[in-house]
Design goal:
It is a single chain. 24% of the residues lie in helices and 20% in strands. The chain has 7 helices and 12 strands. A 4-stranded antiparallel β-sheet has the order 5-12-7-10, with no helix packed on it. It has a 3-stranded antiparallel β-sheet with strand order 1-11-6. The longest helix has 16 residues.
């Protein structure tokens, strides 16, 4: 079913699958997020997800649905200065476990077929998140490999991300860009627990490499598309301005 897509994925480290989700379900997913944000307590979530006061926030959020704000969403006094529906950076990291709508997507027959054709025998979902990329405030994702943060240890283990476009993603609004073939260059650095006391709980093993802008290729994706991302492929996204 996905033979040509997987061929491109093996070669480049990424691939776009158009029309993976139908329009009706896309709107269902977006509506569910609207409901979650509508019910969100801004002050509570701001406290829960502020990495300056809680450097362990990502780990502590692994089995929860937490709301993460854009840095520009608050004024100097810590007050929200824009509508909360436009203030968020992401929601993570257990939508696939705790929310029925996103669980339906994650464990759909189509996703299961794709994962099996990728060669997974006993796949595990490490995390899920919803990225907002709101206009004028949606921030940059610097060049990185997903395996830097979610690294499977073992010769027969690997990571693949499946990213779903719920809006048209273009070069103007911050679509993903990749360095084709970079998944064949190994893991460039890891984000690991820091064994030193009285230091940040997590540290990078190396500085981020100085990737060339000219090496990146944009991967626009129409609404409803799925984007396969090898855990080792270098990718980034620009601001939505």
């Amino acid at each position: 079913m996905f033979e040509k897509v997987i061929e491109d994925f093996r070669k480049n480290g990424f691939a776009v699958i158009p029309d993976f989700i139908d329009g009706k379900f896309v709107e269902e997913l977006k509506q569910r997020i609207h409901e979650l944000v509508e019910d969100m307590d801004v002050n509570k979530e701001k406290l829960n997800t502020d990495s300056t006061t809680n450097p362990n926030v990502d780990v502590e959020s692994a089995d929860k649905i937490r709301f993460f704000f854009e840095k520009e969403a608050f004024d100097e006094k810590g007050n929200l200065k824009i509508n909360k529906h436009k203030a968020l950076f992401r929601i993570g990291f257990a939508l696939h476990c705790l929310d029925p709508t996103f669980k339906k997507l994650t464990f759909s027959q189509k996703v299961q077929t794709l994962v099996k054709e990728l060669g997974f025998v006993e796949p595990r979902v490490a995390q899920s998140m919803y990225i907002f990329k709101n206009p004028e405030i949606g921030g940059v994702f610097i060049p990185h490999q997903d395996a830097t943060y979610l690294h499977a240890v073992g010769d027969d283990l690997r990571e693949v991300g499946v990213w779903f476009a719920l809006e048209d993603a273009t070069e103007d609004n911050g679509c993903l860009s990749f360095i084709p073939g970079s998944h064949k260059t190994g893991l460039h650095r890891q984000y690991i627990r820091n064994e030193k006391e009285n230091d940040p709980p997590f540290v990078f093993t190396k500085d981020n490499p100085d990737y060339k802008d000219s090496d990146f290729v944009a991967a626009p994706a129409k609404k409803g598309s799925a984007v396969l991302i090898d855990g080792l492929v270098v990718h980034r996204s620009a601001e939505n301005r």
